[in-house]
Write a structure and sequence with these properties.
The strands form two sheets. A nine-stranded mixed beta sheet has the order 2-1-3-4-11-10-9-6-7, sandwiched between helices. The longest helix has 15 residues, at 178-192. The protein contains six helices and eleven strands. It has one domain: Class I glutamine amidotransferase (GATase) domain (Rossmann fold, 3-Layer(aba) Sandwich), CATH 3.40.50.880. The relative contact order is 0.19. It is of the alpha/beta class. The protein is globular and about 40 Å long.
Length: 194
């Protein structure tokens, strides 16, 4: 199995993402190069800056290539927002209570389906965002909510795509953040034939 995961490079420090992928036997390839992307077996869309009404063209093209090839995609924080916009959804520009200058905010959530299987039905998660899903994109299904109704996790109904608004790569709440990365590894095994 090809173990290379493209971590879409938005110009940030990806030490936590690299460590989380390595811990489940995957190799992080940090790049924004389309040719490099084509050589990877999965895509990780990490946290980062705000999203306007549209995605940057290069990011949109790489998501399109991975979805067309039915390669697994994992979105984290901004990555969830990017996937929602890619599939035609919209975002709230600002929501209160999910970001703090001191760091992550820990809060209770409710999970169902795939996410409940990974992290339990009521996991405590860590958030640090002020944008959130407003209208859900086509083909996406909500799998996790915060107590205030903010969407914290989604999946695609037909493609190997999972995204969370929180940060499993630095989760310290007792919930198993590594389970999300193991999900990616299992999807890569399935799509590569073993």
């Amino acid at each position: 199995m090809d173990r290379r995961v493209l971590v879409w490079d938005g110009g940030h420090d990806y030490v936590n993402y690299k460590a989380a992928l390595s811990a489940v036997g995957l190799e992080a390839v940090v790049s924004a190069d389309r040719e490099e992307a084509a050589r990877c077996a999965a895509l990780l869309l990490p946290g980062g800056g705000d999203i306007a009404d549209r995605l940057p063209p290069e990011e949109e093209r790489v998501i399109a290539a991975f979805t067309a090839a039915e390669k697994p995609i994992l979105g984290i924080c901004r990555g969830l927002q990017a996937l929602n916009v890619f599939f035609g959804g919209t975002l709230y520009a600002y929501i209160p209570g999910h970001q703090s200058p001191e760091g992550d905010i820990v809060h209770a959530t409710r999970a169902v389906g795939e996410l409940a299987e990974l992290v339990g039905t009521e996991p405590l998660v860590n958030s640090n965002h002020h944008q959130a899903v407003h209208r859900l994109g086509a083909g996406l299904s909500v799998r996790q909510w915060a107590g205030d109704g903010v969407i914290e996790g989604i999946c695609h109904t037909a493609l190997p795509i999972l995204a969370v608004q929180w940060h499993p790569e630095r989760l310290r709440t007792g919930a198993d953040g590594a389970a999300v990365f193991r999900w990616l590894c299992r999807c890569m095994e399935k799509t590569s034939g073993g």
